[in-house]
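Saturday, quiet lab. Running sequence design on the structure tokens for the scaffold JK sent over.
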């Protein structure tokens, strides 16, 4: 039932419609727009390395941290296949223990911070990111918006019947603590044609943009810009992904 355990082995397949190359280009554009020179990057909640590996291929020195041993295992396998050396650490980012300071950039992509459901934990991460960055360094992350989690994913159920994996994904939105509880059931096809079933339970927090901006200010980030849905404009009310671009 733990999150991102067996799911790790089908994660990339189920994310095959996400344009990670485009995502990486967008991140580079956000950095370029700030005129900051970035060489070393720490990526939080790096998962299977879908952002980490392309950035490493582009020549950045990048380290990735994730709480899931299985997700990191997939990242390790992929980077070995590509002949890329990555520093990958298994850690809970709410207890971040990383001792290389003066970093050019700290990143977190694709909902990593929605999994941090308590304000105090998210603020703790922001404080640590601020401490790890050099002066002028960039902290860039995105979250699924409050609108997306409360209204789009909300209490909905999704499912898909694919060639190798079938899943059902049921959501329950709790207004009181502004979280979505996600019950996921997977059936993965084995070589002999049988199916293996497994279940996971995920919980994501719906943060309002203003709440996050306040936490960033408390952590010391004075210059913070918000963009919506891979654009370069302030997020619209129905933006589903909010990018925060912060400069130390
Ligand atoms: C939706 S995945 C995103 C993975 C990757 N960033 C990507 O773009 O594909 C969310 C990731 O957050 C990680 N995660 C959730 N809570 C975490 C925590 N407390 N510490 C570290 N990683 C965490 C999960 O293990 C998972 O790999």
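Result came back. Writing it out in full:
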């Amino acid at each position: 039932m733990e999150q991102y355990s067996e799911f790790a082995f089908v994660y990339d397949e189920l994310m095959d419609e996400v344009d990670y190359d485009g995502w990486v280009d967008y991140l580079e554009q956000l950095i370029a727009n700030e005129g900051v020179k970035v060489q070393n990057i720490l990526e939080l909640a790096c998962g299977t390395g879908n952002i980490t590996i392309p950035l490493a291929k582009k020549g950045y020195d990048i380290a990735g941290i994730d709480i899931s041993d299985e997700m990191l295992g997939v990242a390790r396998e992929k980077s070995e296949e590509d002949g890329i050396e990555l520093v990958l650490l298994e850690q809970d980012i709410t207890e971040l223990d990383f001792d290389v300071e003066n970093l050019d950039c700290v990143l977190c992509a694709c909902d990593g911070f929605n999994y941090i459901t308590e304000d105090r934990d998210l603020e703790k991460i922001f404080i640590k990111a601020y401490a790890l960055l050099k002066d002028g360094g960039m902290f860039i992350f995105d979250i699924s918006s409050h609108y997306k989690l409360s209204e789009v994913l909300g209490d909905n159920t999704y499912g898909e019947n694919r060639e190798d994996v079938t899943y059902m994904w049921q959501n329950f939105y709790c207004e009181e603590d502004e979280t979505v509880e996600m019950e996921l059931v997977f059936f993965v096809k084995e070589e002999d044609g049988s199916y293996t079933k497994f279940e996971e339970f995920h919980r994501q927090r719906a943060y309002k943009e203003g709440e996050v901006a306040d936490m960033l200010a408390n952590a010391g980030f004075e210059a913070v810009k918000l963009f919506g849905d891979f654009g370069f404009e302030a997020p619209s009310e129905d933006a589903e992904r909010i990018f925060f671009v912060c400069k130390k």
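Notes for JK: Residues 4, 45-47, 50-51, 66-68, 71, 92-94, 109-112, 115 surround S-adenosylmethionine (CB under 6 Å). Residues 8-144+207-247 form a domain with the Rossmann fold fold (CATH 3.40.50.150). Ask whether to fix the surface positions before the next round.
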